[in-house]
């Protein structure tokens, strides 16, 4: 592809002769930016054309065709989401996602995330419970968007891998220096052989791949990156066919993950 | 579809498919977009909404057309041949006759640096094409054109 060749050629002498860490980072950033743009362009055009078809801009379409188009549209949305996830992972690893902490009502963020997945919960007829004592919870100085992503990823996994009429419990309590958030389900669990790889990029447990083909394998990786960036911890306990418990230990005064990621990678870019 | 040839063959102004009910003149939107799939979608959707639309494939053509026929709004892609969107935006904002035209950037570049740069150059707003629906684009256009 000529555009990739161009990036290589424009950075060739630097890459071949005495490249610095900064040169390599700049080339990597440019490469990711170009790849993302090139992937988004056809996906976006496909999206808009499908939206026009589905909204009847090209005339009425038979119900069966509409159903098929809807499925293509969903696949298209998944691919766009995957490209965005890849870009996010790359930007976080380079310390380029700004952490914007503001005083955040943790209970409210969790309730919002629950509301967003209620439809799926009803489809599976799950018993979805939130155990939280609002009176005892402090306001935490944290980036609400990133915290929302963390909770959304854990909840979405718990629901996705729950069995029909299963139970999902979210329990929040305050320790001395940490908020402890448990997300528990009695679903399919994680096979022992897969457990040490569960936070790796793109990794999906063998039973998850069979039951649900939609995951990107990036959700838990992102959860770990964010939470550890804030100076917290995430761990889990799981047994196949019995369920999983994911536990977040969120410091009451989180560190800035942009800075901590930069320190970890030695990246000095803004 | 009736086409009005303007300046030269590359510049085609597509008349609106429905006329404004108030009897006012249709608003003119200039679209700079080199990808033919997006270009077709803009042309179809915007003319149906009652706008007069011209789609050109690069920034140089957009500047040339804007000088001949002042648009009410410009939809600007960033990665284009001949003259890219950033350079086009810079030249638009440096031209006293064109600097007040609102420019909505629609690109699949989405790094914070790109968004910041476009806004600093004077873009009224910035949308990442793959991440918004065509209805959201129309809503933004209506917002700008009143």
3D architecture notes:
The complex is a heterodimer of chains A (270) and B (146). In chain A, 52% of the residues lie in helices and 16% in strands. Chain A contains nine helices and seven strands, in the order αααβααββαββααββα. Chain B is of the alpha/beta class and 146 residues long. The longest helix of chain B has 13 residues. The N terminus of chain B is likely disordered. Classes of the chains: A alpha+beta (270), B alpha/beta (146).
Most residues in contact, chain pair and counts: A-B, 24 and 22 residues
Return the structural class of chain B.
alpha/beta
**Which stretches of chain B are low in confidence, meaning pLDDT under 50 for 5 or more residues running?**
1-9
Average pLDDT for all residues of chain B: 89
What overall form of chain B do the CA principal axes indicate? globular
Question: Radius of gyration of chain B, rounded?
Answer: 14 Å
Mean pLDDT of chain A: 82
- Tally of DSSP β-strands of chain B: 7
Secondary structure category of chain A: alpha+beta
